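User: tokens in, sequence out, please.
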């Protein structure tokens, strides 16, 4: 009969390795948990548990904490007996057990190896001494050395200094022998959130329905059951920055919205706090999306924008051919109550959709927005126009001491079925002056010149202007 054995490890673990005088608290003791998540890969966990601790000094293993915990931020407070529970010493145990570490702890010790005949199911067990666990276990069995002996390793107990989960171990001094409610608060890495917005534009691009979603990404190494969730929007200063993990993109299927706001927004310090008005479960390694806002019939304004560059006005292009310039399509709206909005908008990504001639919703672009207070403008670049074309050509160039004089012709052609208004924005520098212009212009600020022209359908419009730029560079 052919005898076969299994090559994988089998670990038989007993609880004999846990000291009887060490108390243990797990998530089963938890009464409630609150998680405040910042949009900078940071979370504040408030874990409230009911504990029965003996009077006097002792040791407690506080288990089921986030593996991303920052141990130096832990705060322990007895809510029922303030001042009567003191943590004298804290250790964060993160040397978590696995098969390799368990075997490492048994080098030079006795263990058992069990093999199973797959044909008969008969089991046989031999006693062995583990000589080494480097690049595979080496055993001494019946006075002989075996490399790669097949079978299941059976260990008598868990070594004292190995644990299964990230654990806070406290040496405490307790003056209250009665059960008490204890709050443990700590900061953790690897949990973050951002806002995602779905914006559905109407047929003539004059209004949109906007759904805002919170996208929460939990990689902290812990699950939070029926948690009270709060979100903080704003730039919180950190002594050490922690890289945000790449978040999963929001599903385009999440176009439906809740009938009532789920978050209550309020100012908080120099930030904004969004408080979810119901408990939610946040699993580890989970991306969760929760509706933040819904606004219908938000008035929008669509603009076509041509952007220049500063170096146009001191560079000699030596009669080069006209340069094609992209025409950006920009949507703007006011974040105000009068415009059916008015909630401070957390930074995030706005994804634009529009129905085609058959009524099917199609994706038309996306852009990111910064934190935007109420009553401020929101500007979103959807993409570049297909049927509106712009090009520019340098018509003259003169150089004097610290002075550049250039003449430009900007041509805009409109191949759409309707007239469009196009803004030409030229970034300037130094001391500048428009000497001649065929079109009205506006000095937006000290460094920006703007032209706005109406381009009829299937026609072109030219803007001819001359500008002098004086610099103060040596």
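Assistant: Sequence out:
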């Amino acid at each position: 009969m052919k005898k076969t054995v299994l090559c994988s490890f089998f670990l038989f673990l007993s609880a004999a390795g846990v000291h009887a005088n060490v108390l243990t608290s797990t998530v089963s003791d938890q009464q409630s948990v609150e998680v405040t998540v910042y949009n900078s890969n940071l979370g504040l966990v408030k874990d409230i548990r009911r504990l029965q601790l003996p009077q006097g000094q002792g040791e407690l293993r506080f288990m089921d904490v986030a593996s991303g915990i920052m141990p130096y931020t832990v705060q322990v407070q007895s809510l029922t007996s303030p001042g009567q529970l003191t943590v004298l010493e804290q250790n964060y145990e993160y040397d978590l057990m696995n098969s390799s570490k368990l075997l490492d702890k048994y080098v030079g010790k006795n263990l058992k190896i069990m093999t199973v005949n797959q044909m008969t199911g008969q089991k046989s067990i031999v006693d062995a001494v583990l000589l080494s666990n480097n690049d595979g276990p080496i055993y001494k069995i019946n006075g002989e050395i075996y490399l790669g002996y097949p079978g299941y390793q059976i260990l008598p107990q868990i070594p004292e200094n190995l644990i299964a989960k990230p654990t806070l171990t406290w040496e405490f001094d307790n003056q209250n022998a009665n059960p008490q409610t204890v709050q443990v608060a700590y900061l953790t890495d690897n949990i973050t959130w951002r806002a995602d917005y779905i914006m559905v534009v109407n047929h003539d691009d004059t209004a949109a329905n906007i759904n805002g979603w919170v996208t929460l990404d939990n990689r902290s190494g812990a699950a939070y059951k029926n948690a009270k969730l709060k979100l903080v929007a704003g730039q919180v200063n950190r002594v050490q920055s922690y890289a945000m993990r790449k978040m999963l993109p929001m599903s385009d299927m999440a176009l439906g919205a809740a009938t009532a706001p789920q978050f209550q927004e309020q100012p908080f310090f120099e930030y904004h706090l969004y408080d979810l008005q119901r408990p939610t479960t946040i699993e580890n390694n989970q991306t969760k999306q929760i509706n933040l806002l819904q606004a219908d019939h938000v008035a929008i304004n669509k603009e076509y924008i041509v952007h220049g560059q500063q170096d146009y006005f001191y560079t000699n292009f030596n009669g080069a051919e006209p340069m094609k310039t992209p025409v950006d399509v920009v949507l703007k709206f006011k974040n105000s109550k009068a415009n059916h909005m008015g909630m401070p908008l957390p930074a995030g990504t706005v994804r634009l959709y529009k129905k085609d001639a058959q009524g099917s919703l199609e994706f038309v672009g996306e852009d990111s927005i910064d934190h935007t207070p109420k009553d401020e403008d929101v500007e979103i670049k959807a993409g570049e126009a297909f049927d509106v074309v712009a090009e520019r050509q340098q018509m003259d160039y003169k150089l004097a001491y610290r002075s550049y004089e250039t003449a430009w012709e900007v041509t805009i052609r409109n191949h759409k079925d309707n007239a469009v208004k196009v803004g030409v924005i030229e970034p300037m520098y130094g001391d500048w002056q428009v000497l001649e212009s065929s079109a009205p212009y506006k000095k937006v600020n000290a460094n920006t010149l703007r032209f706005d022209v109406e381009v009829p359908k299937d026609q072109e419009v030219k803007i001819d202007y001359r500008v002098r730029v004086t610099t103060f560079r040596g």
